[in-house]
Amino acid sequence: MVLKLRIKRQEKDLDAYYQSFEVPYQEGMTLLSALQKIKEDTDQSLAFRHFCRAGICGTCAVMVNGFPKLACKEQVLPYVLFGEELVVEPLKNFEVIKDLVVDHERAIDRMKRLQLWIKEFQGDPRIPPYISSKIEGSADCILCFACQSYCPQVLEERYAGPLFFAKFYRFYSDPREDRKELRSIQAVKEGNLYHCLSCNKCNNVCPKEVQPATLIRELMHIMHVPA
Ligand code: SF4
Ligand code: SF4
Ligand code: FES
């Protein structure tokens, strides 16, 4: 059995093109192992990111037939059985560095600008269980950027995007965060929270079930800053 892939190739600032590959199927093969097989046996120049191979580090997200997925979690057997070609492209809404590797710098800069962490806190560092269970979903985010790549509003430069609001929710709800007012203003004024279309696309693609769209709706409800 053979896996057929069509991979988008691109060097920064050069025209993109698609290249077809065929990889012999091996039991349990994931898209990531297929990409590694191509790199080992056929084309050493193919560029893609990976690290943990276990759905934890978030580095291997790519577009698979138009849908953002973690390559290390994507089993290829169904595509092989149905003879379906896998079209593999870099994440949308990001600049391409090479092939399937995209530039996360702008998103990371924005996270720094919006200070998506707890700056300092006094007192008891423990989080009560009822709050812990409320924020554990957003705390599961692995920064894979799948939601950012699939959100139609991210193309609008001013809208921060689902990843940021999932993080906002996590810190806004944390009792150790004492800058709630600043957080609200950042989300609404700098992140343009109310530009969300509530289309749920980010919920559908998140591999960790963080459910950013649901958290955004809750943020809209609990933050009382005029848009
Ligand atoms: S629900 Fe909002 S954040 Fe999620 S994909 Fe739609 S517009 Fe983007
Ligand atoms: S919210 Fe989900 S899709 Fe978005 S970056 Fe985090 S883990 Fe990935
Ligand atoms: S390699 Fe870490 S999530 Fe896929």
Task: Furnish the topology, listing elements before pairings.
Blueprint: E1 2-9, E2 17-24, H1 31-41, E3 61-64, E4 67-70, H2 77-82, E5 86-89, E6 96-98, E7 101-102, H3 105-113, H4 129-139, H5 146-150, H6 162-172, H7 180-190, H8 201-205, H9 212-222
Parallel strand pairs: 1-5
Antiparallel strand pairs: 1-2, 3-4, 3-5, 6-7
Residues 141-147, 162-163, 166, 206, 208, 210, 212 line the site of one iron/sulfur cluster.
What does the model show?
- 35% of the residues lie in helices and 15% in strands.
- It folds into 2 domains: 2-102, Ubiquitin-like (UB roll), CATH 3.10.20; 105-222, Alpha-helical ferredoxin (Fumarate Reductase Iron-sulfur Protein, Chain B, domain 2), CATH 1.10.1060.
- The model has no long low-confidence stretch (mean pLDDT 91).
- The longest helix is centred in the first third of the chain and has 11 residues, at 31-41.
- It is of the alpha+beta class.
- The protein has a 5-stranded mixed β-sheet with strand order 2-1-5-3-4. The protein has a two-stranded antiparallel ribbon with strand order 6-7.
- The chain is built from 9 helices and 7 strands, in the order ββαββαβββααααααα.
- Strand 3 and strand 4 form a beta hairpin.
- The structure holds iron/sulfur cluster (SF4) (2 copies) and FE2/S2 (inorganic) cluster.
